[in-house]
Write a structure and sequence with these properties.
CATH class: Alpha Beta
Largest sheet: 3 strands, antiparallel
CATH topology: Hypothetical upf0131 protein ytfp
CATH architecture: Roll
Low-confidence stretches: none
Number of strands: 7
Shape: globular
Distance between the termini: 25 Å
Keywords: Transferase
CATH superfamily: Gamma-glutamyl cyclotransferase-like
Strand content: over 45%
Pfam families: GGACT
Radius of gyration: 13 Å
Structural class: alpha+beta
GO molecular function, one term: transferase activity
Organism: Flavobacterium petrolei
Protein name: Gamma-glutamylcyclotransferase
Helix content: 10-25%
Length: 105
């Protein structure tokens, strides 16, 4: 099993059912040394506002989110869901867990 750290859309139960066809279980955690940045993605019906994690020069910056336990198949589904504006990397959360996260590509 893998950990996937979500700070946004994938926390939604509706999105989880749409992407994974199930609800994910996870625990609250924090990613230190990163911050959120607003950006827009062109979608089917126009531009949509989102945010993305980016490394911060301030090590005390942090992003709150949820570390979800997922399978490798779930990661593939998440990759397909996230646009090419994001890339998936592995990070270490405040708890010490190693997790995947989507950041600015």
């Amino acid at each position: 099993m893998e950990q996937l750290f979500s700070y946004g859309t994938l926390q939604s139960k509706e999105i989880q059912m749409q992407v994974f066809n199930k609800l994910l279980s996870g625990t609250e955690d924090m990613l230190l040394g990163y911050k959120l940045k607003d950006f827009q993605i062109e979608e089917e019906f126009g531009m949509e506002d989102y945010f993305v994690a980016i490394p911060s020069e301030n090590p005390s910056d942090a992003i709150n989110g949820i570390a979800f336990t997922v399978t490798n198949e779930d990661l593939i589904k998440a990759d397909q869901f996230e646009s090419n504006a994001y890339k998936r990397i592995q990070i270490t959360l405040q708890s010490g867990l190693s997790a995947w996260i989507y950041i600015e590509s």
